[in-house]
Structure formats: C-alpha cells, structure tokens
Amino acid sequence: MDRRRLALVGVTLGLLVLVLVPAVIAFSAGWLHLPHIEPPLHPAAPDRTPPEAWAAFAVFYLFWIVGASLLLVWCYDRLGYHWQPHERKPRLSRKERRKRAAVMGALTVEDQAVRDAALRRRRERVRREQAAAEAARKSGG
User: Fold this and answer.
1) 102 inside domain
2) CA atoms of 16 and 18, how far apart (whole Å)
3) Domains: count for the chain
4) CB–CB of 105/45 below 8 Å?
5) Cα–Cα distance measured from residue 29 to residue 33, given in angstroms and rounded to the nearest whole number
6) Which domain holds residue 109?
7) What is the mean pLDDT of the chain?
C-alpha cells in the first residue's frame, strides 16, 4: 500500500473517531443518560435525561457532523484525492432528444396503423366467412 492510500485510510479512520468524540464525552461525563434496557413485557425504565438535553445534543451533533465532513473534504483535497463521478456518455442535446422523441412517436403511429390494418383485414375476413356460411346455410337448408 503506498503512502497516499495509507494517508487516505488514516484520515478517514481519524475522522470517524472524531465524529464519535462528542457522544463519548456526553455519555461519559453524565450529561446524557440512556435508560436501562428492560426485558420484553416489562414496563419501560424512566429516562432521566430531559428532552431539551437530547435536542441540544442533536443540534450540536448536526453542526459537528457538517464540520467533520468539511474537514474530510479539505483533508482529501490536501492529499490530492479528488472525487470524480464514473464516466458516462454525455447527455444528448435538446435538439437530438426532441428528434429522437419525434422518431419514436412516428414509429408508434406507424405501428398503430399496421395493427389497425391487420385488425380491419381480420374483421373483413371474419365477415366474409360469416356471409359465406350464411349463404351456404340458406342455399343448403
């Protein structure tokens, strides 16, 4: 593993640890308490932490995560790692997209005309067969 890749892994792991620091401090200092977990079918244990403390921690943590993300991007930039999306074909111009849509519409209309013509031929054949059967029944019966 080269040094750059090792630095990227180290920065990533370091920032993961940095993200956990506020939670570790808040719980170890006793600012937040998790209720005791009770077995199933037992009444829930009371939560000793007021909701305002949880809300304040959540808001602080939100800003902490944004800051850590910015720090991660800055570190990656300093290490020369620039994220790029996967290669894909360039998007067609609006003119080309409209042209393709018009061609597809024309093909759809053409297919519908072919289906309608086949349906008319089948109905005409059925009508002729019924007329011939009716004429045979009248002349034979």
Assistant:
1) yes
2) 5
3) 2
4) no
5) 10
6) 93-141
7) 89
- Alpha-carbon separation of residue 47 from 3, 19, 22, 34, 83 (angstroms): 48, 25, 20, 7, 43
| H helix runs in 1-141, sequence order | 3-28, 51-78, 94-140
Question: What's the pLDDT score for residue 56?
Answer: 94
Q: Flag whether 83 is in a domain.
A: no
Nearest to 83 by CA among 137, 32, 12: 12
Tell me, yes or no, whether 54 and 104 share the same domain.
Answer: no
- The residues, ordered by sequence, that sit 6+ positions from 71 with a Cβ below 8 Å of its Cβ are 15, 18
pLDDT, tens digit (0-9, with 9 covering 90-100), for 117-131? 999 999 999 999 999
In this structure, are 52 and 102 located in the same domain?
A: no
C-alpha torsion sign, points 18, 16, 80, 74:
negative
Structure-model confidence comparison of residues 104 and 41, the more confident one: 104
Q: Is the residue at 34 inside a domain?
A: yes
**Which amino acid, one-letter code, is at 66?**
V
> What amino acid is encoded at 136 in this protein?
A
Which tokens hold the place of 89? Answer: 């074909």
Distance between CA 77 and CA 35 in Å, rounded? 42
Give the model's pLDDT for residue 115: 93
Q: Terminus-to-terminus CA distance in the chain, angstroms?
A: 97
